[in-house]
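Escalation from tier 1.

The customer reports that the assembly of three entities below gives different structure tokens on two consecutive runs. Tier 1 could not reproduce it. I'm attaching the input and our single run for tier 2 to review.
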Amino acid sequence: MLLDIIVIVLRETLEASILIAVLLSVSLSQSIKFSWTPIALLAGFAGAVIYGTRLGAISEWFDYAGQEVVNAGMQLLVYVLICILIPLQWQSRSISKGMMRLLLSAIVFIALIREGGELYVFYTGFLQKEEVLVGALTSGFIGLAVGLSVGAIVYYTLVVREQSQAKLLHGLVLTLVAAGMMVQATQLLIQVDWISAGEPLWDSNWLIPESSVVGQVIYAIFGYEATPSLVEVWAYSFSIAGVIMVAALFSQYCKRHSFISKRASDV
Amino acid sequence: MMKSIRTFLVIVILSVICLSNFIAALQGYRDSLNAVDQIEEQQLMDKANTLNALFVHQSAIPKSVFSEDTHFQVWQNNRLLAKSNNLPEVLFIDLEEGFHLKSYGGHQWLLYGLGKEDAELTIVVAAKHRAYSSLTEEVLIRAILPIIWILPIIGILVWIVVNIGTKPMKQLANKLSSRGVNDFSPLKSDRYASELLPIISSLNGLFNRLSDAFERERRFSADAAHELRTPLAALKVNLHNLSKNQKDNETCLALKRTADRMEHCIEQLLSLNRVSLEADSSELVICELHGVAQEIIADIYAELAIKQQNVELVGGEARMRGRFSSMAILLRNLLDNASKYTPDHGAIRVTVSSTEGRVGLLVEDSGPGIPEEEYSRVFERFYRVGGDRSNSKVIGSGLGLSIVSDIVRIHEGQIRLSSSSELGGLAVEVSFPSISGALGDDAL
Amino acid sequence: MMRCNSYLSKVCLGVGLLLAAQSVVADKPIFELIIRDHLFYPSELVIPAGQKIKLLITNEDTTPEEFESYELNREKVILGGKKTVIFIGPLKAGEYPFFGEFNMATAQGKIIAK
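Tier 1 run:
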């Protein structure tokens, strides 16, 4: 039981912890102070509690599809925010710094609501069994520690890079994280039959079992799926293409914009 | 970019310990669970085979062959032949051959069905699934928990170890900051850890280049000054001859003043050079400032008498460790300055003081002083208050206070400019670390 | 640019219609799963292979449970005393273990597609 609790808390912590690690590294490389972090974390925890308490009612929306639809919606939102965040890295204007701080906070906030809400529901189950509550909290602490350890390692792996390399790496990791989220969202919608999926295309469980530690880590980072259906593969590809397209459009817009402002200043 | 190497090391090491422990524990748990599952399955199969053997040989089977935790049912042609005492309400009639999971009676049971499809006889044995898994888990949790609790202690230990590990860096920094001003000698590389050697070797390269550049600059100004001396001397002789024939010629007098100024400038350049040369070569001796001041005043008394300036030397013995000639140059410059900018009949006062740990030298005059905003600039080389156009009667090179500040820096002293409260002119206050009087009576 | 957009939207619309048509047309058999005392009843559920099914899960416990399966790619929290619906399949014939993540030690089961 206790080990299971560690794994549950770890699974939920892992994803948020890795995402936050990447965002902190982005923040550091943009020399944005970490002051946004505690506020976003606190807001996220509060949001998680509220989401957790409302989960019963939410579950019954859309003919019992509420949980999936709301979760998928949050993931889509995070995807969109990450799409905007990635190209902003290469902008040095002060307005993009303020916008970045807002984006970073928003992503952490939503991610925490999603992951934290489930943990909150999980722990309410223990409130009725006081004899195991202490053990459950201890195990939860261990799970949290392990999750944060992975986050710390990810953070330092990114932070020791050269500045230009770090930006590229941030872009890459964030793209994969965002695409992974879209796959999860697709899966949720398949689960409630909002999207129809065929039989799995392949089974890579022999290579990396999805239930293994490595499988869980790459599930958390890249949305690894051992038995994906065609729809999920498309969702993944389109999501990556989407990030690249937004980045390309954005850089083009910026080029034109800076050209105009340069001409204006020349006059 | 990493903000702190120490934090990085502590956090990453702790994270790795935490992770590897957890993964090891999880792997151990899964392995032992698998092992237990295999034993469970083996036991079930054995039990089913035993029942089968029993049934074949004697048709009556005792109702409690096994312990309470094991259930069985024996079927023949869809008829229940026999079952265990604590029989479950569920009938396992349409069970296929092999292992199955089933929930009943508030437990999860592992079932094993024996008997091929065509066989008449089907034997089903059930045992509580993973009855001992909580035990396995408890053993593991007890193994992980201590490691988690001692993580903070490991953290502190790592912190200490990292501190010790980074000590060579601190030592190197201390060594560099305690170096003499003009000390460009290379660091000895055999005294440092191999990780610091790249830094040491690039520092040594830097020292080399600096030392060369420094030497070049010094030699150039000294050589230039020397080379200028000879033509200047010739110029002065010619001027002297010229002025003999044409007395009271304004142009001649002006030329002479300019030549004097040039000579002064060259002398100052040479003494600037001498000061920095001395800083490298000559040993520190014990200087007594009151005595030095007396000598210098005696030297320039003639000039002071021309301007009818009143000089006063107050205070007593003050010993410091320094270079005698440097101190003489310092006092000479300060007194020259005071005399130059003080009008005729003015007053100059030199105060030598000795307090706990420091010796002080205060030179005040009754001249116009220097505006406060110029205080920091007057130490720059060739800077003159008011620019070159000012008071052309005063011979000055703009090097005097620059030389003074060099000497003060080399002797680890301090210099401060202010306005003299009593005489109304400039007050230059210099102080050096003193030595206890007992040390150097014989050294003077 | 404009043309590209309209083409994209047409494709999206087409895919959307296709998906909608599929999910409406399919006639989905309903199966039921009950959670009681952190156990699944039945713990082995036989469903037809190659067909999408609707699974109705009722949690009779007072504590929440999470229905989860790596093999089925399903994950859903069911609060105490609530019920929920998920769709499964179409599956190839085989065994697909599932478990209650909040009570993994007891809540184990598998779906058998035939």
